[in-house]
Design brief:
Four copies of one chain form a homotetramer.
Chain A lengths: L2 E9 L7 H8 L8 E8 L9 H19 L8 E6 L8 E9 L3 H6 L6 E8 L11 H18 L7 E8 L4 H9 L9 H19 L8 H7 L11 E5 L7 E8 L6 E8 L5 H10 L10 H4 L2 E8 L6 E2 L2 E2 L10 H17 L5 E4 L10 E8 L9
Parallel strand pairs in A: 2-3, 6-7, 10-13
Antiparallel strand pairs in A: 1-4, 2-4, 5-8, 6-8, 9-14, 10-14, 11-12
């Protein structure tokens, strides 16, 4: 069977506002049963006490359950990842990924661009034990799940993967206590720090799957988590949440066997003001990014995703930044506002999926940037 | 006598760190007696309880006094304006404006670019009465002071003025009470709000001086303060401080009668992600801004100044922003981080003078952007 | 029929944690069908972008609906009021008010204290038009609803009412635009400010109902909203929310016709450090509050509720406070942390319902404080 | 020679406002040459980027230098310790400690209370090497300096010491790099964390000096820093600052050999709502603290000092607090607001010296509380 991808971007008036998605479903533009992932930018602080993520997740899950019940079908498994923090220009929105049969092969034939198309799949690891989180076993399980999703998506070459979203667990006091009761110790005994370990191990799992790090052994990679930041993935984006102990993975890449009219590309930003990387990723998708995208072109860009993080060095191009020393605003909030400005400058759109906490996701202070766009020459209606 | 301008940009490790300036003075690269203005970006919150401004001002004034005393001369009058808030990538720094005789006319002759050069002057209004602040009289006094500074700088045409920095007063409880005791009422009885009124009236004073608003009468302009935001200056940057009741003005423009190797240009950003305006102002100074400035070019750019403010509409290009609804981070802090990202994307440098609170300084949500650069073809050493 | 009240205090591990309530229902200690109100302290910022209130409300409503559905009954109308902000020692918790038939009259007869008991009822106004919010009509509707609830609760004398919780609406851009489209203007065109107007009018409605203000006419009271703070209620606690346009009211008082073993008392704090008022309200309920309540006594205290607000004067007992000048922390967050400290000092418990935004709820800088306790001499089991 | 102490409490309108102190000096109520310590509560965030401390310190030092120069004397060495953070009710103020000859022995004879009087002295350690900070050598140096100050103050018994203020250094990137260049490693490579290590070692140094910890060896104490919180001082208050590498110590106690009319007492709060400890320390000084101190009594209380910190357990008396999970407000800011409320409830005054960061200063979540008051029966004028 031949598949195609559709990506919908809906505005959110609040963490519980799915009205645009419901309208699209009601009008037949989106098939609720075909949703395999929902990513959301929500307007919390993106840190420990950001309850907009849970609120939005509760809302999305309730909606998916309602649609499944109304159709008399079992609820499908969808990856639901909320990223908190819409600092600066960032606009709260949902990205809904739909995988559906490519019935109208004719459409594809019409497109002038015969290149590969966006392919996608999700996978899930087994639940981690608390003592496994942030360590070699965590890396291994994510690595294997990425491979499983690649196979499911029909992507055979690692180079064709351009973005891997991981939703990973974190440690709570109770989970740490459970491990201790069994005589096991955890990677850290601090809940907040465990988020970094979990994101870091997830990212290294992606890096291992995509051959981005020398495979000198899982144990060595495990020891590198939150320690050797020279090891990283250029395509991973990880987000930790309290509501799960397993890992959920969404793999996005390009495949010649998929239909539809979307394609994905990625680059890595060397630092938060790396305009060149943003221009390049857009250039890869056929945009002229020497100027800001104007409406006809910008409408072709359906998603722009990046990780943001202040450099540990305390400086950017040799000049001091104050993000790490600000006790009033969390450093990741500064970084998202900043990277949002750099991306919006070129994209001319503020519905950007910029998320923070980029351990092992790109170099220190930088991070992956990925874009999904309609291929040039396709007509929008054909999608 | 023929003058020339020099603009020095020094890094600040803290609000009391003038070490780079002191070193330049010690090495003869800067004549303390010739300093006419010091602008600083300090790392406070830029809002009511930002004491980094006062701390930095106290430090600068002490330094200027020490140098004057050491040289046995009276202390010169310098405009000292601190702008708080270095969110995102913004790097704390000082901009020191030096006006000195253009002794080596020969240098000018060598430059391939024969165009006008950066000219500058400062002026001061009389002290305002509390009841005058934010009203027609305030506008009038600033307008006249701008004209006085233009004359001093030898700039005859309003179109040659590209940036006017105003440091203006604000109302305290005591000042409001003083007015009331005389039977007078003030524009507002809220100290924080008075900062907006003062900046707004100052900006309209600049607009009046530069013929940017229809001169239908000062009274009408007074009534427009913080009310009719359709009236604004594209070249004013105003900052309110508690330590003065008069207004200090620094006028920067171009003049064919000045020497040196610097030139200034400005544009207005229509909204905070108006990349085109930033590219244009750099284009005006001979840069190719379709890519990020690389080191040889970026070193030519000695200052980039802009105002930042979230749009009152609550949206940017139709997509909602959350800056005005965030009760944890002041809206101006979001806006500075954002505009810093847009500017740094092109400038490739984070020592940017981005300040908040842009009432009547550019359109709603946008603001002026000005750049000072060495003219192409001049040699740096010639300065 | 004879009624009695029960008040349950449950800890909340997060805004979506109702586990203690569910357990109580499961064990028959609480009848879900008898819940008439749920008040919650949630751990958001208590300001504009506090989504923990909506999250908690969504969670409570889903629970009540589930229990009603499971029992095959229509869902009862319950007042659900979430107050954001658990600064300092304040601990997130739920207060669940249960009204049930007083079957075991014998118990009452056993109690040594023959005085009146906690009586309660709720009422709802019709939906307000946007242009009515914060004005005379708003006051009138709340006043009438308080009277209706008093009647329902069998409280005939205003002096027997000790606490009135109001959940009131606020204005959004859309609601303001709707009014404008009809040619009507609203009390304010600022959404945040409309919260203060709504709380203020609600509080004056309570004051009018309880004869706390000279009834010189509703129009005069309407003009006093957010203007003449000399007019206030000593028993109102109002909270504004976006999810409704009507007002929900919970009246708590004492009545000789009710059973159970609870009683309520109130006092007004003259300023945020008015220890005497807290000691007095506890003294009214038979506690010795010259020392902190020790466990046997503190267990008798089932709820302690207060409003917190920084004084507009900028000082407390003549010494300056900085709550209103802090641009990093909202003033109400400071005030809740402070008042929580004062209350906890005496109560020896941190599950305190301290809420902010006290317009016309007590004098400037002060506010009502109410306590609910088991009457001395009653046995806990008898409840 | 016989000495006496005077303690002056001055309001601060801003971090640079010493006007009340200057007036007292001008009116002969305070001898600038006799000032041995100035403590200040300043209105910053009390965290990393709190520049109000540096601003206030710069201001105090300039004033002391000016007075010394005007009198033609060398500047005296005074301990200047600024504590940032005036959350909740806390009012910015200065505490000025003056040590002067007790010329009027007659006064002392008149006082009905013949007990000991406030005695005080300061001492300074040598500069630490970066690698010594937070370790055994740091503890030893502080211990010895406390002993030196005790001797200077004529306090022979450790039990007569009631409060020891330490101003200690912190590590910067440069200092850490200096150590590394010499082949030495530091206790931590994180600047923020080094503040905790420095405060912790300082507190353990005080504990060692006052025999509050079993002296099983300095090395063991060094290993306990920020690790074994069961070891602590009940009388230490430590504050870290970037501007020094040595430690400055102020010892306050009681001595029968001193005159004046002041006395000091201390207790330890077991947790932040330990009202009993506050009532006890006031009781030790002759106050009836079962009610809030009323003006005649409260005027006798010249200083109330306490440390505040959220408990690491995440709960207070078994109920969860959210101070450690709030990414918008630093935990120490919550804690100061809370403890300020508890203290003000009894003191009836908001000029309280509540400081945060209580590592090894009292038990987890609690901290020392000390009070200085005029002895009952002394007349104010006699001081």
């Amino acid at each position: 069977m031949r598949w195609k991808s559709r990506v919908h971007r809906f505005n959110a008036q609040s963490p519980c506002d799915l009205s645009e998605m419901e309208r699209a479903i009601g009008q037949g533009q989106l098939d609720a049963a075909r949703i395999i992932a929902v990513l959301g930018k929500t307007e919390g602080n993106g840190c420990v006490n950001d309850f907009t993520r849970g609120y939005a997740t509760q809302t999305v899950n309730a909606s998916l359950a309602t649609h499944a019940a109304a159709a008399g079908r079992a609820e499908q498994r969808a990856v639901v990842v909320m990223s908190g923090g819409t600092e600066g220009c960032l606009s709260p929105h949902w990205l809904v990924f739909e995988k559906l049969p490519d019935g109208d092969g004719a459409v594809r034939g019409d497109a002038r661009d015969k290149g590969p198309r966006l392919a996608m799949a999700q996978a899930t690891t087994r639940a981690l034990l608390p003592e496994e989180l942030g360590r070699a076993k965590h890396i291994q399980l994510v690595r294997d799940a990425v491979h499983e999703a690649m196979q499911d998506a029909g992507i055979t070459c690692a180079a064709d993967v351009h973005y891997v979203q991981v939703k990973c667990p974190l440690l709570t006091r109770q989970r740490i206590a459970d491990a201790l009761a069994r005589g096991a110790t955890t990677a850290t005994d601090d809940a907040y720090e465990s988020m970094a370990y979990s994101r870091g191990a997830s990212a290294l799992g992606v890096a291992a799957a995509l051959h981005e790090v020398e495979m000198t052994g899982l144990e060595e990679l495990g020891a590198a988590v939150c320690s050797n930041y020279g090891l990283y993935s250029e395509r991973a984006s990880a987000s930790a949440g309290v509501e799960l102990m397993h890992n959920e993975i969404l793999v996005l890449g390009n495949s010649a066997t998929w239909g539809g009219n979307l394609r994905i590309a990625h680059r890595v930003m060397a630092d938060p003001i790396d305009l060149g990387a943003v221009q390049s990723v857009l250039g890869d998708l056929g945009f002229d990014a020497t100027r800001q995208l104007a409406p006809p072109a910008s409408a072709r860009l359906v998603a722009l995703l990046a990780k943001a993080e202040p450099s540990r060095s305390g400086s950017i191009r040799g000049a001091r930044h104050t993000m790490l020393d600000d006790s009033d605003i969390a450093a990741t909030r500064h970084a998202r506002a900043l990277v949002g400005g750099v991306l919006a400058a070129v994209a001319g759109d503020t519905r950007l999926f910029v998320s923070g906490g980029a351990e092992h996701q790109g170099p220190d202070g930088g991070g992956p940037v990925a874009a999904i766009a309609e291929v040039s020459g396709s007509s929008r209606e054909a999608a």
